[in-house]
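quick one before i forget lol
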Amino acid sequence: MNGGMSDRRVIALEDGWGNMEDGIMKLRRILDQEDAESFTSEEYMNLYTTIYNMCTQKAPYDFSEELYKRYEAAFNQYINSKVLPALVEKKGEYMLRSLMSRWDNHKIMVRWLSRFFNYLDRYYVQRHHYATLNQVGVGCFRRLVYEEIKPSMKTAVLALIDKEREGEKSDRGLIKSITSIFVEMGLGTMDAYQNDFENDLLTHTSSFYARKATQWIAEDSCPAYLIKAEECLYSERERVQQYLHQSTESKLISKVEQQLLEQYETELLEKENSGCAALLVDDKKEDLARMFRLFSSVPKGLAPIAQIFKTHVQKEGMSLVNSAEQAAAAMKGNKEKPTTSTSIEQVFTRSAIDLYDKYSGYVNDCFGSNALFNRALKEAFEYFCNKGIGEISTAQLLADFADKLLRKGGSEKLSDEKMEETLDKVVKLLAYISDKDMFGEFASKRLSRRLLQDTSASQDYERSILSKLKTSCGAQFTSKMEGMVNDVQSARDTQDVFERWVDEDAANRKTCIDFNVTILTHGFWPSWKPIQVELCDEFAQCVETFQTFYDAKMSQRKLTWVHQLGAVVLNVKYEAKTIEMHMQTPQCSVLLLFRNEKELSMQKVIEKTKMPADAVKRALYSLSCAKYKILNKSPEGKTVNPEDVFSFNEKFTDRSRRIKIALPPPDERKATIENVVQDRRHAIDAAIVRVMKTRKALAYNELVVEVVNQLQQSFLPEAKMIKMRVDDLINKEYIMRDEENSQVFKYIA
């Protein structure tokens, strides 16, 4: 046992290699299917032991180096004698199939020989940092076979891919095997795959789809072309999944998109009768969604589509504006008073909401809520929503529409859910209007009327729209309107306290008629100029009683009575029946004069009521010339003149026992606009002073930009108005021009 190693017989190189050659030849016969029997375990152990013994003999009989060389030579001899001749004589698909088989056999041969020579791999190769036996085996195939036939490999594979692209069947398993060879020939890198195959594949793909695009763009409509393009992109992605390397996908798809989409985008989008504009007109949502999907991957591919979308929505919006202007002109020409159901604001705003629903649906469903299309929709709506209808601004139309929604007996009978949706859309439309302060002023006046006349459909609706406006426009925008709603609630509480106070001393405090008082906080409500009214004794008693109560409770506050906002329920007894009449205080004050007077001229009414002539004229008109002829007028007619004489119509009757005598409201539009313009002057002044106080010195153009940025949430100030306010502030010595540069302004502390 002690001398076992030294007693082992030395194996000569040629003797040992002769034994190995027999094993190698048997392996070759197995691979060439000339020998069906595989190696037995005894044969395997004999071959392994031979290599082991030849590598572990003492010098000079350690044949490791020579065996390493002969290992490579065995591959070279087999490839040159068997493999290469068999491949060179074949072409195309046949050559590829043979190559696939030969490569599979070669890997088997490498695996078996690596086992036989395993001891060499474990010690000699590692000690000398040589290539592993596996690397040597693959390297032989790469050098002798791959380098020789790679041009024909690439050509044959590209031909098979072209065949498949043209709709014919091809052996995907074969293509996958060949592309895998390109990868394996990189010996751990993608260099061989990319340089010897992928680059040519991409060039070939570009040429293929360039030819297809030229043909399709001439023959097909835009939707048909895009369907083909989408199918091609799907096929190419599937191709990558089936037999190409994953790293190829992005490059390959980019080439297809470049040839099919990027090169022809303008021509496709502008195709007559089938381009993007035509698809929008025809509501082809599926085709538009496909267009978005395809061009979203193209660099800057969505911008032209978004521009066409914006132009289309602008055109649709301007069509609404023009239709509304024509309707307004027709009403003005015919001197028609618009009815509730056909009023301009109703038709225009409802149409604008429908338009918003439609195209916001397009943005969400077809264009994936993409920011470009959201911005296009916003800019399109801003374009036509700020045009106005004739002399009426869109802000006023929207305020009037909201007023009709929120008023009792409004023109639209909506469920709670639908009402909330519509209010949401009103607020969304407001976001597109630059004159938000104008909307706020009109909405505030409409709200005050609903609250004071008790015509609001629901307090919940009122609070709901205020909440939505607050979220959209800020707390300052709704603070006064919220104060108005709270005032009405507080007034109910005050009325309860007042009634308990009256009951405490009913004998002295009880009035001859029932009445309610609504106390309004001056800063919240629109500014009304109180009109003087000589009240009848009953009304005067009510005023005096409440004044006594309020002075005792709130000694630090002063009440100003705004009689023109008051409402009266008056029971008038006729021979046939008693009619309950609902009217405002000025109307009632005029009508009650006829309890003691048989006839009165307009001038006499003015003298007795001490009301302004305009207010008297409106009251007399509502009582004698409107729907209900409570008073007789002489001479008859539809206008009220100072010399007209009025008398009580004792024969008046109506089918209803309760009637509402509307008092024509004064035209507040002009005054409201003037108020807004005045408020804007103050807002611009304040913004200029704030900016200049912070910056100390600023060029005019920069000042304009800063002021616009501060105020654009409320309104968009015109440069002309800003210049006027700057000049005014210079005169008031808030700011001054720089002595050296007149375009620079300085703040005066």
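fyi The radius of gyration is 47 Å.
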